[in-house]
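Feature request, filed as a ticket because there's no other form

It would be nice if the structure record came with a short human-readable summary line next to the tokens. Right now we just get the raw output. Example of a typical job, pasted below so the devs can see what we mean:
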Amino acid sequence: MIEQQGLFRMPLLHKQVVSDEHFALLNGVKNNLCLDGCLTQDTGWYRKMAWSSGNSTYLGFGEGRCHIFRFDKPQVESYEQSIVFENADKFFSYLEKGSSNIENSIVQYVLRTYRQLRNEIRTEDSGTASLKALLYLLAYCRDQQALDLEVWGLTLEDAEVIQLIDRNKWNMIVERFMDGVKFSDKWLKPDVNLILRHTAGKLFEEANYIAYLPSQLTLFPYEKIRYSSETMQDGAYFTPSYVARSIVEEALRCVNLQEKPRLTIFDPACGASGFLVEALRQLKNLQYSKPVHVIGWDKATTAVMMSKFVLNFEKQEWGDLLTCDVRLCDSLAVENVWPQNVDILLMNPPFLSWDKMKDVSVMRDMVREIIPEIPKPNLSAAFLAKAVETVSQQGVLGAVVPTRLLNDQNYERVRSRLIEQMSLKLVGGLGSFVFENVLTYTSMIVATKGINDLETTTVLWTINEAGAAEKGLKALRKHRYTNAVLEDKDVSVYETNIIAGQKTWRIDNYRNIGLKLRLDAVTERGLFKKVSDLFDIKQGVRTGANKTFVVPEEFVESLPENEDHQLTIWPLIWGIFIRLTTCFTLTRKGLNPLIVSSVLLNCSR
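Raw output as currently delivered:
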């Protein structure tokens, strides 16, 4: 039932033993679930676990019934287990409709405490200092008097930041945090292990925004604002957990873990290490018990700080099998040589356009050095080009990239670099709603080093609407389970061939691809003709007025005499040069003189 719903099952508890049947069923941004194979705890425990793990609902099965525990409601719903299994689609749709109050989620609860710390610290670097205080608070609330800073990757200097807060205020903040929240009939206390295991990505994304907020604005702790940070100005955005999870899942499908005596995993733009943490948890879920070395680089101080903290939390479960190397550095700087023979390279590189690099001339020089053949490239293209060279033979690359890198003619050489050395396993279009409040068309790719012409590429297409990416990634899991083509109006998942020399990796839905194949077949038999075989097609400058063309005067002079009299010639100022051009409109009756409008005049300016 879980696989059929496209859910990802992950052990719920930190250091969970194999005999425990507590799981998180991960779905996307919201409506994730907890699952218990047999009821062994009281109602309060299930509600606490659901809340602390960032999930709205806990499902418990026992004595032939399915019980639904919601963290903010005392009532427990109960249904016959057979009815749930027979109507799984309707059942999960019902659960999604009963989402809990977001304001009382565990992430918002922790952030309220963080804002209190932010208000109390009034130093010049209060954002970074308050983030250190939050990390120390989380570690202290779990271990209290047994706290060992080294276990958490914290230093004595990090711990001393709480000296900036009045002692009574600090004790009050800690006490309030540990008391938890009362939901109708019951107080629920936070579980730090569950917070870090299941909500660290979203929590630290929000905390990073707040760290760069002017301290006087934190008088409004409940107001939802998007704050600019130094990383966002560089085109860098935290990878949503559900996207990182799917990319890691697909990447690990391409690795023969039994043949790997050890693994090296690298993220050159790690942020809060969402990719690295997800890889470690999935490896643990797959019972990989050999040495793992993770490397994370980032040029943001707050990102490195958060990465060290969450990776040391993972090390508490892995022990000596895990070694971590997190560095504060610019991954594209010449002096920073990328590690070689990396088994798994995972990244969400900065999506910074060439125009926005104009104030950082050094960055443009670094990009030109890496991909000199591409005019005005996006920063992410340089990361992708270096990644191809870094992955070891039979190694795997998984990345979030701007969709332009898959489609744009300017990036054809970057695509060629990849396809000449690697086999493309997955290309997925996720739309422009992946990063909150940032409308950037986003895609994902997974590729393995080495060429295998016999293998196909999995294509994921999603409609460009909010929530479609989550639905698409669930459909991808269903495709892996059934091996069948999945196609509806919002999502398509199917297999195709993307080979060397292919000019574009444009993603389309399965229905359109099928139509194109049928048209190509009948065209080859001579039943249809291509327009390009019948006409010499030319396109003028796009003005934004869909029925208006701007073309050189020479084009008008080349037209037959019976069409020439219908044209009106207008000189336009376009950019920084003046050219005599012709504007006309296209109708069903032919070419008609253009009526000059404010739209055209605005364009001409």
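Something like this underneath would help us a lot:
Confidence is low (pLDDT under 50) at residues 217-233, 571-582, 594-605.
The chain has 23 helices and 22 strands.
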